[in-house]
Design brief:
Formyl_transf_N; Rossmann fold; alpha/beta; binds glycinamide ribonucleotide; about 25% strand; Phosphoribosylglycinamide formyltransferase; single chain; EC 2.1.2.2; purine biosynthesis; about 220 residues; 10 strands; phosphoribosylglycinamide formyltransferase activity; seven-stranded mixed sheet
Length: about 220
């Protein structure tokens, strides 16, 4: 009798621009075998950010691709794609990567690229999400994890986590509350992907062969 084939460990590249708390959560989850994958490369568009230090301390290859070196977006994204191809990456994880990616790049990683965004999408794509939630008098905020398509912060949602907004909150306090949710939510979603349980098909996210609703998994 032969045993079922184990799922081969996936090769992940994480793209960052800054502090890298989500990167750290993913590094820890891989190191503890919660996620069946290896982070083989961390790319930043900014030099000397904390996320690069975290990657180096974990023994992960790092690269900095600065926008100044590639004034044309298409050239930047080609350099990025070439680098990821060198590492035979299965999954691209955007973890606070503050650049818009070209359609060509997005198509190359169709169904194989995830993003985390600090709002309950489709509310507040783009920047300053927490201040915008405060200004609108919202009573809750959160994070959204979604597949990346060429619509900014607009791909199919996989999972959202909600937090309350209190009367005396400021944007920084909400950001911290949301971030604490991000650090458990993102590893869970990446784990699903690496177990071949999560796919994108027909412009929807599917988990365990079931299409997820417009707000993703476990939303009301
Ligand atoms: C996270 O809050 C993430 O949701 C946000 O950047 C932060 C990165 O934090 N992403 C975006 O705003 C993307 N539109 P980190 O560097 O500590 O992981």
């Amino acid at each position: 009798m032969s045993l079922p084939n184990p799922i081969p460990s996936k090769r992940i590249a994480v793209l960052i621009s800054g502090f890298g708390s989500n990167l750290q959560a993913l590094i820890d989850a891989c190191n503890h075998c919660y996620i069946n994958a290896e982070i083989v490369l961390v790319v930043s568009n900014k030099a000397r950010v904390k996320g690069l230090t975290r990657a180096a301390e974990a023994g992960i290859d790092t690269a900095v691709i600065r926008a100044q070196e590639y004034p044309e977006r298409i050239d930047y994204d080609r350099a990025l794609a070439d680098l990821l191809a060198d590492y035979s990456v299965d999954l691209v994880v955007l973890a606070g990567f503050m650049r818009i990616l070209s359609t060509d790049f997005v198509n190359t990683y169709h169904g194989r690229m995830l993003n985390i965004h600090p709002s309950l999408l489709p509310k507040y794509p783009g920047l300053n999400t927490h201040q915008r939630a405060l200004d609108n008098g919202d009573k809750e905020s959160g994070c959204s994890i979604h597949f990346v398509t060429d619509e900014l912060d607009g791909g199919p949602i996989i999972l959202q986590a909600k937090v309350p907004i209190f009367a005396d909150d400021d944007a920084e306090r909400i950001a911290q509350r949301v971030n604490s949710q991000e650090l458990t939510s993102y590893p869970l979603v990446v784990k699903w992907f690496c177990e071949n349980r999560l796919i994108m098909r027909d412009k929807k996210a599917w988990l365990d062969n079931h299409p997820l609703g417009p707000n993703g998994y476990a939303a009301e």
